[in-house]
């Protein structure tokens, strides 16, 4: 959407050119109507573009793109990381082979090289970089601070209070669940500044939240690595990495949200005492120098954060659930960290970490099985007495709890009917009928699949034959021009130049 907005500013002065934006979350019928009007430039996400090319032949869009002259894949390596490889292959099969293609990317990957070999002829690599041998801008101040797990949130709250609220911050967290939970806490602890949250599971609200933060003069955006690249928000003063990113390259992309277009910027990485080796790793792996920043710990803020996190959970069970999900997701993400040789879960005090999340009790999870976590100091509270603020949800929970206390079985959402006894002959008859139905469904599915495969092959074959025929005609015209059997004007007219 950002590319479309920037392009629109240029097209205001060029009335002969028209653009169309094709993205998910917008009515498909509206996109179809816009395509019927025609356009010179199409900006699209891979999923929506493939859907229109493959499933909506009524507008002959697949034939229209045969006149395509230039294809641009922005953040090409990111598209591959997100699993769009098959989608891109499908899109390329519809496009003419005689075209110019540009792949733009901040990093080079093996998958990107495969895409270059598949989609480009005579590729030329252009590398744009600064003279200095560093991965981040010179006007970016990169810092780190060492904190204990139970003090991480209070230290960050005090840090933001010390910098001020007339500032724009981006705070990166490891998981969507952490964003959901901690954004509520930060909003309550910092009421003087607007706090927004954004992650990949927010399909409908995502564009509105992003646009609101981009237009704001100050505020805090708490997000996942979804916002680490491919976006341009001006005047970000501070990037705070609450957790080390899952990949080393993501560290540079996160920092790159600030100090853009010659502006000054600051980035601060929070590390636990067991993660200090990460500083040297980033220096060697990404050529980024980090300078240690001393942060102050205020005991009053520690008590304020812990008390608020626990009080809000006691008032609403939904927050209690979110806190537990955030903790569990953080631990699971940490286990899968790319730098697991230096960032190992066994080195972290999970009890202190749970205190940092303000948990009321240690959750049941495989990582804690058979372990005694003595460092966790939780309040004495009956978890079953914590209510949902939502009345209907609370009534349903009480009903299930009463049934559990009476029967010893927790009622789930799935309706389990008690199996009735039946004769052996009836049972055998039903099994045979089920087997026969299953066989018919399988046969029908296979026939449908064969039909689809045949149609696709025919379509691709037709396209390939058309391409070859057109290419042969073009070669014949070039030969005629070289042998002076036709004039330059005739040649230009044949190519519609």
From TrEMBL:
All copies of domain Helicase ATP-binding, residue ranges: 1-126
MF term (GO), any: RNA binding
Helicase C-terminal domain residues: 152-301
Alphabetized UniProt keyword annotations: ATP-binding, Coiled coil, Helicase, Hydrolase, Nucleotide-binding, RNA-binding
Coiled-coil region(s): none
One Gene Ontology CC term in the entry: cytosol
Any Pfam family: DEAD
Basic residues bias: start-end ranges: 428-443
Segments for region (Disordered): 421-465
Transmembrane segments: none
Sequence similarity: Belongs to the DEAD box helicase family. DDX55/SPB4 subfamily.
Protein's name according to its UniProt entry: ATP-dependent RNA helicase DDX55
